[in-house]
DNA sequence: ATACAGTCTACAGTCACTATAGAGGCAAGC
DNA sequence: GCTTGCCTCTATAGTGACTGTAGACTGTAT
């Protein structure tokens, strides 16, 4: 039952110390108790909450979505459908992104296969980037970072 | 042969005006001539360069990679292999990201399928996020934004 | 007593832009 | 010449989800 310092919480939930403090500033983690000298003190509840956050982040949920999930979690007798729809939405996003990346993969592969070496002047990879518009009928959306 | 203002260049290459100016500040586009009143003036060379940049961005290349590609482009009698390896590297990144997202898709689907409605207290989606560690043997890396 | 790891705050930097504010420029119609 | 209305200019701040840095204090082991 002894409280954890931020470093111990960090190891317990596998989230970096600086990230925990960041989560506090954005209101994702509550403001913890402090020791006499001002150090943050946490309990098992915090380990669980932080682990939940980490898992949700690993599943690609945005901070905002996680805030929603946590809010719903504290109202346990409500209907599950709100939770379900957040997850559904996340799946849709993941699938959109997958489709984009698959198109990219095809194009990069094609470019690279056509490259038979030689001088840059006649490089097929360069040509492919230049003629990108003609490569696939589908237009790419603005690409989010890899 | 009359020069283009930034707005015309923007429409010609399908890149936003603000983005062109941004590319100038980071040295991706050179500093253009100016009219007497200080407006930027561009030529067809700039349309081509900007289009190249846009195509490369659509293929997911980073700004730094594009800088490299442009540098190589201006040395046309060098070997093509440097270009090829930049493209190869990009393909590897795309494929890594694809694998990550496919794992995510499987997990989200499984979570959602298990959800049979009911109260949040017994919600399988919530449970799945909590028990995420046990879901798939593979560990997710830190996830980049969708 | 000293060394060293941990913790504190506050702020700047990342990436690739986007948005906003406020001022000045340019061409067409009246 | 004047007005209308879009175009362009600079400078600065914001985005998301953190990470990195500086400089000072704290806690613990030897």
Tell me what you see in this structure.
Two copies of one chain form a homodimer. With 146 residues, chain A is an all-alpha fold. Chain A folds into two domains: 6-73, Multidrug-efflux Transporter Regulator, Chain: A, Domain 2 (Orthogonal Bundle), CATH 1.10.1660.10; 81-135. Chain A is 60% helix and 3% strand. The first copy, chain A, has seven helices and two strands. Chain A has helices spanning 6-13, 17-25, 44-58, 63-73, 81-114, 124-130, 132-135; strands at residues 33-34, 40-41. Chain A has a two-stranded antiparallel sheet with strand order 1-2. In chain A, strand 1 (33-34) and strand 2 form a beta hairpin. Chain A starts with 5 loop residues before the first helix and ends in an 11-residue tail after the last helix. The model of chain A has no long low-confidence stretch (mean pLDDT 85). Chains A and B meet through helix 3, helix 4, helix 5 and helix 6 of A and helix 3, helix 4, helix 5 and helix 6 of B. Chain A binds a DNA duplex (30 and 30 nucleotides) through helix 2.
For the biggest β-sheet of chain A, the strand order reads: 1-2
CATH class annotation of the largest domain in chain A: Mainly Alpha
Number of strands of chain A: 2
Q: SS-based structural class of chain A?
A: mainly alpha
**Global shape of chain A:** elongated
Termini gap of chain A: 43 Å
Determine the most extensive contact between two protein chains. Answer: A-B, 59 and 59 residues
Q: Could you please say which CATH topology of the largest domain in chain A applies here?
A: Multidrug-efflux Transporter Regulator, Chain: A, Domain 2
The oligomerization state is homodimer
Instruction: List the uncertain runs of chain A.
Output: none
Helix content of chain A: 55-70%
Total domain count of chain A: 2
Q: Give the ordered list of helices and strands of chain A.
A: HHEEHHHHH
Residue fraction in strands of chain A: under 5%
- What count of helical segments of chain A does DSSP give? 7
Mean pLDDT of chain A: 85
- Alpha carbon gyration radius of chain A: 23 Å
Main sheet makeup of chain A: 2 strands, antiparallel
Protein name (chains A, B): Helix-turn-helix domain-containing protein
InterPro entries (chains A, B): DNA-bd_dom_put_sf, MerR-type_HTH_dom, MerR_fam, Tscrpt_reg_MerR_DNA-bd
GO molecular function, one term (chains A, B): DNA-binding transcription factor activity
Organism (chains A, B): Pontixanthobacter rizhaonensis
